[in-house]
């Protein structure tokens, strides 16, 4: 049995999928092969939020699973819409890596050190809103492209191939904001000038985590359920799952779901287990950075149901504080 693993063809997607494939093969003892799937987000240009948010990277992979073109798909969890996909299940959430957003700036500058009017690029409304809240005097620009392309917009960063200024293409920005997780997986953390702590920038729900998705019939069978499988693939997927990561991302995604917010909405959330408690903090921002509501709460209900309820409770607090009035939560 060769397990076919669907992936986008970007460098980051291939890197994190290959790492997952290697782990699955080692645990399951079966051969694996990568199946490249072209998604709408890889083909279209323009603003990601206008295209339908990060969900545009997911649909084609899910279609490939349902069409039996591949057996498993590896997603960045923050790209997954919160709604269930009929016939599919998130079979595993491996241990999460660094959840933080980072600044990659020229001359090693931090956000506080950037001069007024500095140009900072990001494709995320969530990051843009929190940048503007922290530094209303900088210019935040919407950018697209893979990790290397975005880093190439900042002059002097390690690994960049040119120092020629080409507007819209290279060396034309003072900084970009990216996820630490992606840079870590691509071995480009040497470009980081500042790691943002959560009081400055809360990450996207699910950031730093992967979702391994498969057909529900192939997913690990849970206690008391008749769905799923006890086969070799299901056992290997179960072995890759990290319970604490699953609890955390379940709480974070429950915030989005209760807010009825899309993955391009300016919403940040971060949950983590500490001892017998699961802690969750979430923020909703006006895109222009002028208004922010932030709430936090904890629970001792260390189950997926408990994590979901925690997310709903924090979302209710945000709504009571006016979240729906300051942000376009329907941004997909």
Can you give a write-up of this model?
The chain is an alpha/beta fold and 332 residues long. The protein is built from 11 helices and 13 strands. The chain has helices at residues 11-28, 40-43, 48-51, 59-66, 125-134, 147-151, 180-185, 232-240, 243-259, 304-320, 323-326, and strands at residues 3-7, 32-36, 72-76, 88-92, 101-105, 119-122, 139-142, 175-179, 194-195, 210-215, 267-274, 277-285, 292-299. It has a 5-stranded mixed beta sheet with strand order 2-1-3-10-4, with helices on both faces. Strands 7-6-8-5-9 form a 5-stranded mixed beta sheet. Strands 11-12-13 form a 3-stranded antiparallel beta sheet. Helix 5 (125-134) links the parallel strand 6 (119-122) and strand 7. The longest helix has 18 residues, at 11-28. It is globular and about 60 Å long. It starts with a strand and ends in a 6-residue tail after the last helix. The relative contact order is 0.15.
Order of strands, main sheet, comes to 2-1-3-10-4
What is the terminal separation in angstroms? Answer: 38 Å
Estimate what percentage of residues fall within beta strands. Answer: 15-25%
Number of helices: 11
Order of helices and strands: EHEHHHEEEEHEHEHEEHHEEEHH
Question: How many E strands?
Answer: 13
Low-confidence stretches: 47-54
Radius of gyration: 20 Å
The level of helicity is 25-40%
> Can you tell me the overall shape?
globular
Mean pLDDT: 91
Determine the structural class based on helices, strands and strand pairing: alpha/beta
Largest sheet geometry = 5 strands, mixed
